[in-house]
């Protein structure tokens, strides 16, 4: 099982594609970073992984659990322990 996995993760804002079919696999214990110029979609990707914004298409899985499953919660903080969003914050 991967700690983080995305499957065709896409986010569009009207006619602007912020993240375009991102496929990513990060194993438990691995370190990774998102690098890119301004407007490359780094923050949007983290927001989708953190259940703060819904993808237009695709899904992200954190420890095997779909990030779409936590979007119905009214979470405004990543470390909200009352939601079912599978995020661990250090």
What does this structure look like?
The chain has 90 residues and is mainly beta. It has a single domain (2-70), classed as P-loop containing nucleotide triphosphate hydrolases (Rossmann fold, 3-Layer(aba) Sandwich). It is 9% helix and 36% strand. The chain has 1 helix and 4 strands; from the N terminus they run E-E-H-E-E. The chain has one helix at 42-49, and strands at 2-13, 16-27, 57-62, 65-66. A 4-stranded antiparallel β-sheet has the order 2-1-3-4, covered by helices on one side. The longest helix is centred in the middle third of the chain and has 8 residues, at 42-49. The protein is globular, with a radius of gyration of 13 Å.
Secondary-structure element order, N to C: EEHEE
CATH superfamily: P-loop containing nucleotide triphosphate hydrolases
Low-confidence stretches: 74-82
Major sheet strand order: 2-1-3-4
Largest sheet: 4 strands, antiparallel
**The level-1 CATH class:** Alpha Beta
- Return Rg in Å: 13 Å
DSSP summary: helix tally: 1
What structural class do the secondary elements suggest? mainly beta
Overall mean pLDDT score? 82
Percentage of helical residues? under 10%
Quote the beta fraction: 35-45%
Number of strands: 4
CATH T-level topology: Rossmann fold
End-to-end distance: 21 Å
Shape: globular
Architecture (CATH level 2) name: 3-Layer(aba) Sandwich
Task: Provide a quick synopsis of the model.
With 90 residues, the chain is mainly beta.
